[in-house]
């Protein structure tokens, strides 16, 4: 049986009693405590702004895992950051379609916009003091699953579609001024730590944003459903599934 974190000596004073209560609540949701590792890492990131060595040890102690086991997970998933992040995380899609339509140009320009011509900001580097108002962490991301709206970028995992170099620069400049522009679709913008807390399963602190608006933000786009609309307008339907699946070719004999 896992010992509740609040009964242990704290790994770091940054993990306060509220964090420990939330930790216990997360673990209680899973028959196997180790299954709670992903939301627990998000919880740690909501407190620290990244997953620190102390955060690794905290998760390991709470779940009775080794620090190597926790580190293996934290370094596998790109959503877990190993260096302190800014108030906002800007993710620019540089996968094939976005890159061809301007994603590479957007990323290159934001690197110099947030850094300098001589020292462009690197992947997962931060402009400004991490966590402070207006600070921005920049990253290039693999497919953000919005090819129909390319090129796209995300701010704290909320979509800004059909971007240009100019609109991306305007967006980042607004973030640095402390503004929170409305995403193209999805929930109203908040800060990265609040999003991490939501990913951990807690919506009681939405960073000053109404939680109803966070849930009910628009998620669709005309481009995404155009094929379905054309099919409806033209009476197109997909063929029914056969009663029996088609015969599969015989497997070659093992030698």
TrEMBL record:
InterPro entries according to UniProt: NuoE_dom, NuoE_N, Thioredoxin-like_sf
Pfam families reported for this sequence: 2Fe-2S_thioredx
Recorded GO MF terms: NADH dehydrogenase (quinone) (non-electrogenic) activity
Tagged with keyword DNA repair: no
Hydrolase listed as a keyword: no
SUPFAM superfamilies according to UniProt: Thioredoxin-like
Full protein name: NADH-quinone oxidoreductase subunit NuoE
Taxonomic lineage from the root: Bacteria, Bacillati, Actinomycetota, Actinomycetes, Pseudonocardiales
């Amino acid at each position: 049986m896992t010992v509740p974190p609040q009964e242990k000596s704290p790994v770091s004073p940054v993990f306060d009693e509220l964090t420990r209560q939330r930790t216990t609540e997360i673990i209680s949701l899973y028959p196997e405590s180790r299954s709670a590792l992903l939301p627990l890492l998000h919880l740690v990131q909501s407190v620290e702004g990244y997953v620190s060595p102390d955060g690794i040890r905290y998760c390991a102690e709470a779940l009775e895992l080794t620090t190597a086991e926790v580190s293996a997970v934290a370094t596998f998933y790109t959503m877990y950051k190993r260096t302190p992040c800014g108030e906002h995380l800007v993710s620019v899609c540089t996968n094939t379609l976005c890159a061809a339509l301007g994603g590479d140009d957007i990323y290159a320009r934001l690197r110099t916009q947030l850094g300098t011509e001589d020292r462009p900001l690197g992947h997962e580097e931060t402009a400004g003091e991490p966590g402070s108002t207006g600070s921005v962490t920049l990253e290039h991301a693999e497919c953000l699953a919005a090819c129909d709206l390319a090129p796209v970028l995300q701010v704290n995992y909320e979509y800004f579609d059909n971007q240009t170099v100019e609109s991306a620069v305007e967006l980042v400049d607004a973030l640095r001024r402390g503004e929170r522009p409305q995403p193209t679709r999805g929930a109203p913008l908040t800060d990265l730590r609040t999003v991490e807390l939501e990913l951990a399963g807690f919506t009681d602190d939405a960073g000053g944003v109404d939680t109803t608006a966070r849930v009910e933000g628009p998620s669709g786009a005309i481009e995404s459903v155009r094929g379905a609309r054309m099919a409806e307008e033209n009476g197109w339907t997909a063929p029914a599934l056969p009663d029996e699946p088609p015969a599969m070719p015989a497997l070659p004999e093992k030698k």
